[in-house]
Design brief:
It comes from Pseudotabrizicola sediminis. By secondary structure, this protein is mainly alpha-helical. The chain has 12 helices and no strands. The longest helix is centred in the N-terminal third of the chain and has 34 residues.
Length: about 260
């Protein structure tokens, strides 16, 4: 039985990480195409990527959109979750359903709807419009994670703070938010990840200043290249390093 368990785990991890391993290996390919056979080791594709001004600009744009949109989605999601969890409102179940509804809608439909709204209102497409789209898709995620983390322990602490004279905003900032820090951090970094990788909304709602996925798509239009593998490898390594650092610091401290 133990052998079957280990075999299943090995197969699952291979299924998940084998494509990434192939991508990383062929980012060092000393040839024009990232395909077998492996023709030798080189770092020139990483030098090409790091020296590409358009690619670095797209990378900065992705970071800007991901951080700003995720921060806004987290704030709005946290406030909505706190309100619906602590105050009995008419139709609160319906309100929760409406907040989570965008998670069930295709990104293409959301992007087309926003594109129509922006065109009708005369709003120029830019990184800001892409950021608005990312807030729309990430706010339900932040709301769902934060709402699920709220319990009686937080409610009792909030009531005690009010009894001691704290205002509603003081309770929110100094009691509720710190007690929900692990959930808020998880919601924020998941939102950053989704925004970082998102293509359809970024493609339809930007024009000249594009994000990294859109720039990679433009590179792929000219054919496969180890340079695109190098971009993917760098993004994967940075994301993995971030997750490891968070696990060793913030999330480990949150464990009882």
């Amino acid at each position: 039985m133990r052998v079957l368990i280990w075999a299943y785990m090995a197969a699952a991890y291979a299924f998940i990480f084998l494509p990434v391993l192939v991508l990383v290996v062929f980012s060092f390919q000393d040839g024009r195409l990232p395909v077998p056979p492996f023709q030798g080791f080189t770092l020139r594709w990483y030098g090409s990527v790091l020296g590409n001004a358009k690619l670095m600009s797209a990378l900065g744009n992705s970071l800007l959109v991901a951080v700003v949109s995720s921060s806004l989605a987290l704030i709005l999601g946290f406030l909505a979750a706190h309100a619906l969890a602590r105050v009995r409102l008419p139709g609160s179940v319906l309100l929760r359903g409406l907040l989570i509804a965008p998670m069930t809608v295709s990104y293409l439909i959301i992007a087309l709807g926003l594109l129509t709204v922006f065109n009708q209102t005369g709003v120029r497409l830019s990184l800001w419009t892409a950021g608005i789209g990312h807030v729309v898709i990430n706010l339900p995620l932040c709301f769902a994670i934060t709402y699920a983390a709220m319990g009686d322990q937080q409610r009792s602490a909030e009531r005690a703070a009010r009894d001691l004279g704290a205002s509603d905003w003081q309770v929110l900032v100094h009691v509720s938010a710190p007690m929900l820090a692990p959930a808020l951090a998880a919601a924020f970094f998941l939102s950053v990840t989704f925004s970082w990788d998102e293509f359809i909304i970024a493609f339809l709602l930007t024009r000249f200043d594009v994000t990294l996925p859109v720039e990679i798509w433009s590179m792929l239009r000219s054919g496969l290249s180890p340079a695109t593998n190098a971009v993917g490898a760098l993004v994967f390594l940075v994301s993995t390093a971030l997750v490891v650092v968070l696990e060793l610091t913030l999330f480990r401290k949150a464990k009882p």
